[in-house]
Task: structure prediction
Amino acid sequence: MSHDHSLNPETMPQEPEKATLEGKNKFLGLWFFLGGETVLFASLFGTYLALRNSTAGGPSGQDIFGLELVFLMTMLLLTSSLTSVYAMYHMKNNDFKKMHLWLGITAFLGIGFLACEIYEFYHYITDFGFTFRSSAFGSAFYTLVGFHGGHVVFGLSWLIALMVRNAKRGLNLYNAPKYYTFSLYWHFIDVVWVFIFTVVYLMGKVG
Amino acid sequence: MTDNTNTNSFQKQKNKEEMKKQLITFALMIGFTIVAFSIVATNAMDKMFAVPLLLILALIQVGFQFYYFMHMKDRGHEFPAMMIYGGVFAALLTIAALVAIVWW
Amino acid sequence: MSIAAAQKKGFGAFLWDYLTTVDHKKIAHLYLIGGGFFFILGGLEAMFIRIQLIAPENDFISAGLYNEMFTMHGTTMIFLAAMPLLLGLMNAVMPLQIGARDVAFPFLNSLGFWLFMFGGILLNCSWFLGGAPDSGWTAYTPLSVESPTHGIDFYVLGLQISGAGTLIGGINFLVTIVTMRAPGMTYMRMPLFSWTTFVTSTLILFAFPALTVGLFLLMFDRMFGSAFFNVALGGNSVIWQHLFWIFGHPEVYILILPAFGVFSEVIPTFSKKRLFGYTAMVFATILIAFLGFMVWAHHMFTVGLGPVANAIFAIATMAIAVPTGIKIFNWLATMWGGSITINSAMLWALGFIPSFTIGGMTGVMLASAVADYQYHDSYFVVAHFHYVIVGGVVFGIFAGLHYWWPKMFGRILNEKLGKIGFWLFFIGFHLTFFIQHFLGLMGMPRRYWVFLEDQGLDTGNFISTIGTFLMAIAATIFLINIIYTAVKGEKPAGDPYDGRTLEWAIPSPPPYYNFKQLPLVRGLDPLWIEKMDGKGKMTPAEPLGDVHMPNGSILPFAMSLGFFVAGFGFIYQTDHQAWNLAIFVGMGIALGSMLIRSLKDDHGYHISKEELEREAD
Result:
């Protein structure tokens, strides 16, 4: 039970995130949580789909959505998914510095995504007068996309706290599961975004 | 937990191969995304074809995320897979209801 | 170690111990106390409802207060009484049954409890702050959006907070069962109560998020001017009904499955036979859970979903009767030819079978969509769901409490008081609710404040109210029994009932580390196997060694308190902007506690081998 000692490559287990019981528990716990999140987002998507034509005379998705920005956001988030895969790759090779470097890039891309989203909302509100209150469609749109954005904010806070906390102590069996569960959560955010850009933006544009 | 140390080059090699697969996955995902966006941007096809195609592209991408990026294809992921599919089952029912039997 | 020392230090230390505990057995005590408190509260609300309806055109309470009473009665009983009491039993028993030293996430276990408790308190604060919620426990829109007081706001925030706690508890149980079963405890050797805990937790995991979203939408509509349910801006109030029942129907299985689990433990123990059809019981449980997700719209037959949707949901609903029937027959077959001991726990189990079967029969009647147009919103429905929830869940809780009381508290409940209480409750229950079937068929609608004279409803309502008093007396006797037992009760041996499962292999109450050495499980009913082999106790699966234990923490309490404060902020910020301060302070406390939790390493501590050797068996 010497899990508070830093790892050296000699004693590194193959899957550091699942080497301890605590790690295994965290791993499964987060996966199960994601199972619940699936239903949470399904409820939001369902609500959005039910209300997508309820524009109450206001702007519709076809009028306001701009594909360029959404494409940029998609690229940012997809790439951040890959960079966190790279981080986990370096975790398995017990290369802490490279892992942190890739996580740093992940955070950077995440912040970029968030900035785009804020700009997007600002743009809709000021240029189209399309708000949370203007129609049932508006409420559903901002709630669905906003919940996803909230998940991004939470994920970023998690990542930054993790990186700051462990910057000086290196990888060990106590924090490896924490990094790993973060990466799972981050991938899931990407999964949700894939459906958002498909269902909300692309299908919205098609009509 | 002592037997499977990872200093040997075999394990490193395996990780590397895994990473190569991840990169291919990523390239495919980007490809699918570009296809999806260009279908809409160019108005290439009728709505009746476009919407199912977009959904299929999204599903494939999500499959890649789960099975490759999140390692659901690997061993020891039986329970995660079960709970995700359970969630998907509840999710599909929810979406079906909210799409089909809210307005009439 | 620290826990044993704390108990000698007087009340302050005792309280602090419970506020910071992460021990599943103490969290179980907390759940039982919290759930018991709300059960009494919900019971009092029920009394107010029945007294109002004792005579035609009664004016015991006003119409508005009556609306608040039935709303809070339903909400309290489902979310704040039945569920926590069951979670309490699960917490107390499940880790012992699977041979674990604790749950997978002791910290989250404590957080789950405190979130539930503060959510419940927040909801009930509404009584003193301008009126409780008053649009039914289902809070159908647009009524709930238009309700003028802050009542519904309390409902939304209170349930949101306590619901988060339940979700956390569910994930915790799932992971515990997957990773922490003792050596040899395969899935198909797990006691049925642990199985139902597992399946129930899955239901919690998939059902609660729908409620979370529904509550958010309602909150946004009421507080931030969104338009989900606002028809003028294109909203649709049926969305709420779907989201609520997508959660709400699995919720009733979340309640009944653990009760089924309790009976599946009590009946074999007191029949001295292994559970008949164990495998069928397990699969019936899973099947009920699976089907339970596909039937929610049977609450909405009269909404006008159309004949196709109604037919699908009607058939799915009727299908649930099949696995439930399997269970009923298996319990009967378990008793068949057994050497039956009739004590209080067994009485509750025996009373359950006919009572629940009646509830199941009316359930199949209600499942028929065409007939449901007649029953809908009448007292027939009220009778039906009380037959399944009281006759199933409450009986199950009482059976479980009588059965595991010695294991949880180290005292055996008084049998005489237990039996008197059972008979009073059983008679009172049928007196109250059986007649309500006929009141419903005669056309008495539910949720009405008064009924008129000479419409054939007077006698029935009078009888119904009398029955309620009997149930209230029975509940009081149970409380007296608890106090009497605490003072004069008999101290049990580890295994007072000649039990079959692992929880009876250790002392009552168990030491805080549960098992000195993890037991080796050789089959279903592991303790019974050892008894039959003439050994009488479990073979250890590991040599005596250091035991790793988690540290206690006040942070779960602090986090929940933070959300509680923020809840008030959200409710009142519509009145005055200054209340935003409460949101910031509350969220600050909650998020700050989370940050501390993330940044501060907590490796727990070890009980040394020597210390374990010193402890007597």
DSSP finds three helices and no strands in chain B.
